[in-house]
Design a protein that fits this description.
Oligomer: single chain
Distance between the termini: 19 Å
Largest sheet: 9 strands, mixed
Shape: globular
Helix content: 25-40%
Strand content: 25-35%
Order of helices and strands: EHEEEEEHEEHHE
Structural class: alpha+beta
């Protein structure tokens, strides 16, 4: 799906997806214990890479910076990955050392900007014991903010998001198992994400931008 002409902000020029773990700075999780496949990039990267591929498709190139910033870190706990799409840039960022509340999504375009704070509410609702089809299931009470310049004046408006629906994925999986529909996540999409995960590691190690034509094979 191509969002470079999305309404509201015009032609998208920059998309930022920032994902900071919600845990104390000194806390450790299994994916950070060291060894193959460990680290914040392999933990959170698959999610935000998949989102970017769903929105914009395969990038032209990738450049990554991975680091271990906490004392005694056994795996990367910081990543900053840039994907190039012609003149557009996608920035994927995550760090275990962030105390302030940062925007989750930032989109800049030829006609405006959109900023969204907060995470998808469905996981927290599950932790609180809620289950679909509760009336407020997946409803995010923190709207995004759209800013545009009109007639030389800054105009800002709140934009409510659509309700989330984890269940749609599992219904799709059920239908695929029964032979009543396609797999909601085809193997090719999973392979594309895995290829970019490894490519980012290579880019960070080599300190250079890498072309992504391999993903079109």
């Amino acid at each position: 799906r191509d969002m470079r002409g999305v309404g509201g902000v015009g032609r998208v020029t920059k998309y930022e997806n920032q994902y900071e773990p919600d845990r104390p700075a000194g806390a450790r999780r299994a994916p950070e214990a060291g060894g193959p496949g460990s680290g914040l990039w392999f933990d959170l990267g698959p999610h935000i890479l998949d989102q970017s591929l769903q929105l914009f498709g395969q990038p032209d190139w990738l450049q990554a910076d991975l680091a271990q910033q906490r004392p005694g870190a056994l795996a990367d706990d910081y990543f900053h990955v840039v994907l190039g799409y012609g003149e557009m840039r996608v920035v994927l960022h995550g760090s275990c050392l962030v105390s302030a509340t940062m925007p989750r999504f930032v989109i800049h375009g030829s006609e405006g900007s959109f900023i969204k704070f907060g995470m998808d509410v469905q996981e927290e609702q599950l932790k609180l014991g809620k289950r679909p089809p509760a009336a407020d299931w997946g409803v995010d009470n923190e709207p995004g903010q759209l800013s545009r310049i009109r007639d030389g004046q800054l105009q800002q408006q709140s934009v409510a998001g659509e309700a989330g629906d984890y269940g749609a994925y599992y219904r799709g999986v059920c239908a695929a198992i029964r032979g009543e529909g396609a797999n909601p996540v085809p193997a090719g999409e999973a392979l594309a994400v895995m290829a970019l995960l490894d490519m980012a590691r290579d880019s960070a190690r080599e300190g250079k931008r890498l072309a992504c034509q391999i993903l079109s094979d």
